[in-house]
Amino acid sequence: MKQVYMDTLGCQMNVADSDRMELLLFHFGYSRTPHMEDADLILVNTCSIREKAEQKIFSLFGGIKSLKEANPGLVMGLTGCLAQQDGERLLKRIPCLDFILGPDHVEDIPLAVDRVLETKKPLVWNDFDNKKNYSIPPVTGQGRTNSHPSAFVNIIKGCDKFCSFCVVPFTRGREKSREANEIYDEVRAQVEQGAKEIILLGQNVNAYGKRGLKTPVAFHQLLYGIARIPGVKRLRFTTSYPGDVTQEMLAAYADIDILVNHLHLPAQSGNNRVLEAMRRGNTVEEYLALIETLKTRTPDIELSTDIIVGFPGETDREFEDTLRFMEQVEFSSSYMFCYSPRPGTPAAEFQDDVPEPVKKERLQRTIECQNRLTAMRGEKFLGKEVDVLIEGEINRQGTTLMKGRTPHYWQTHFPGTANRFQPGDFVKVRVEKVAGHALKGQAVVQ
Ligand code: SF4
Question: Theoretical Cys-Cys bridge with 282: which of 168, 225, 286, 314, CB 3.0 to 4.6 Å?
Answer without folding.
Answer: 286
